[in-house]
Specification:
The structure holds 2 protein chains of 2 kinds.
Chain A: E1 8-12, H1 20-35, E2 40-44, H2 50-56, E3 61-64, H3 75-82, H4 92-99, H5 101-110, E4 118-122, H6 123-129, H7 131-142, E5 146-150, E6 160-162, H8 168-176, E7 181-186, E8 191-199, E9 204-206, E10 210-214, H9 221-225, E11 230-233, H10 240-256, E12 262-269, E13 275-281, H11 291-298, H12 303-319
Parallel strand pairs in A: 1-2, 1-3
Antiparallel strand pairs in A: 4-7, 5-6, 5-7, 8-9, 8-10, 8-12, 10-11, 12-13
Helix pairs in contact in A: 1-12, 6-7
Chain B: H1 37-45, E1 51-52, H2 65-83, H3 93-103, E2 115-118, H4 120-132, E3 138-143, H5 147-155, E4 159-166, E5 169-170, H6 172-184, E6 191-194, H7 208-221, E7 224-228, E8 252-257, E9 269-272, H8 275-289, H9 294-306, H10 309-334, E10 340-341, E11 349-353, H11 360-369, E12 372-373, E13 375-376, E14 389-393, H12 399-423
Parallel strand pairs in B: 1-12, 3-4, 3-6, 6-7, 7-8
Antiparallel strand pairs in B: 2-9, 4-5, 8-9, 10-11, 11-14, 13-14
Amino acid sequence: MSNQSSLRVVVLAGGLSHERDVSVRSGRRIAEALRSRDVEVDERDMDIELLPWLVADPPACVFPMFHGAAGEDGAIRDVLDLLKLPYVGSDPEACRLTYDKPLAKTILARSGVSTPDMIVLPHEAFRELGAAAVLEAVENAFGFPLVIKPSKGGSALGVSIVHSAEELPTAMVTCFSYGDTALIERCISGTEVAVSVVDLGDGPVALPAVEIVPDGEFYNYNARYTAGLTEFFAPARLSQEVARSVADEAVKVHKTLGLSGFSRSDFIIDAAGIPQFIEANVAPGMTETSLLPQAVTAADLDLGEVCLALVHDAIEAHRQ
Amino acid sequence: MAPQTDPFGAGSEQAGNRLDPHLARYAERTRGMTASEIRSLFAVASRPEVVSLAGGMPNVAALSMDTVSSTVANMLATRGQVALQYGSGNGDQRLREQICEMVGLQGIAPHPDDVIVTVGSQMALDLVTRIFCDPGDVILAEAPSYVGALGVFRAYQVDVEHVAMDEHGLNPDALRERLKTLAAQGKTPKFLYTIPTFHNPAGLSQPQERRMEILQICQSAGVLIIEDDPYGLLGFDGVIPQAIRSHDEDGVIYLGSFSKTFAAGIRVGWAVAPHGVREKLTLAAEAAVLCPPAFSQLTISTYLDTQPWMDQIKIFREVYRERRDATLESLAQYMPPGTTWTHPTGGFYVWVSMPEGIDATAMLPRAVTARVAYVPGTAFYMDGQGHQSLRLSYSYPEPDRIREGVRRLGSVINEELKLMHTFGTVGAAKKTGTSKGSTPGPDVV
């Protein structure tokens, strides 16, 4: 193993989004992984001191691990571009496309990726058209169950699965507590999997799919971050054909959205064995219960090794 | 470097992984200990951009650091070797004498042997519950009640029966009714847990005659009272209410703390208990921590011996009174019609009841986005009540920050009302469920 002591990386984590807590834990895990490879790591939060600090002593590379707004919407990466600092992961444009779930689904559907039917409604639409009429139209078109979620954001915050018309208004209020636009999706039953894609210098490659089996109805915040509430299978219990299909779809998502470095795409394998795209993440969780680190382990890789390769690749890409 | 495992279908025989090899070993009482969205939102509340009206943190900025520094130096110079050594299980003798002098202000006249020093009054509460309660036992507590107490009761698998409050605190009629109902079920509560003075979270105080009535009800029913009194000296008018314990030495265990009268970080509290109880508390304390921290105890003891501590309490009162005023003024200015709140005469907290149907837990993400934080009312109940209420703590932020925070909160509630009108959910706040997922961490108790 080479000594990386001359390599200094800044891991950015925390921020002001609803996912601050998760981001802090993800950042800590990435920092520890890089340190295990003898990289000098500074962990920094987002505050008014950050930019002057980065300018005064530029690191070799930045590893952004902010989750949610200002982290995954491309904003921080726009600023890093302005500072001409290399960073791990996708560029601002790809982040903007991916972070907006309806937009990502639309682009991917046009490219032939299967994704559940949806309708996207800002809060104002309900106010102006009348919530009862709009919800009735949604119910008539899609039936139940439905998935109600904010159009942006992660960790299943503000997400509800709705089984009847009576549950819809409360689910909408919950959703709009996290954002101004709701994504209403037909609920697909099947096997829930997450496929991580990494580009370690030879193009994007899918890691083994991780199958998610939560104890409760769905993979909500508690199930994501409480060890024991969800059972994972890595690799997922899929036929070879379906496993290859979902891996191909994840790489297709990565390429179609213009993602770089690493990403994670979530799918439901429906009754016909078709992967239905749910959403993609440009800064997937890296906590002790997160999915990408499990995929790394399932691939017989070391997280520190992967992170270091991502750093080297980002530096090289920046040079070019 | 490339992935070495074929990702395509190798997992058909794979065993599942729950990411915690100790799952089968955990005790039943850990079942409710899970991550929660609400806890994650409190992580954002710690950022300086957010006006946090959530945490009940004492305003230690009002304490002279020079005074603390010289007190510690003095203590180390005079009793350093004692401070750095193990001590007695029931606490330092001199400190127990000083505690007796302090509680004399509340009409309690214990012998120093009746006092056991603990790691904050939270530990005293833990010890009391440990020695009295088996899983499934019933205790009584106000509705709402202190979130830290509910955490202890939950940990010992105790069934909490809430007793309604009115504008004067715990309602005696509701207490009689609850005792009657429990008796009909063949249940006798192990104790009543009450905060009679400047209640957390309700901000209410029991008048003296009510304290006597509650005591008489409990005496008649043979129910022990646990009187938690961390805020008793922090009345804004300078009047110190007499403790329930001052009327009954055998039927009341009194819990006190230096967290609000000196500093929370020193972690020293105490229990004043009848003889038999005291002996068991000491044995339980020794099993838990061997002895309370000598360093902290002797620091406080030196502070009480050498500094005008009552003058410092007067400073604290003024600091909190100014912040209480800012809170009440801005609530009057910014809250929408249909919102009501308590008017505390001491302590740290205002309890806000919002227009019908608003769910304070569901509203919290919107509030955090607007850079203001509070504790949803559900955290203060074990039975799913409190959706329509929230607790504001005014103890820590500067008055101008409080005004800005309440202004933001008013906007958030107005937005929530519009949303509810849009979806016709007015009046549909949740009425059932448990609060264990919304329990905040120690920085917001």
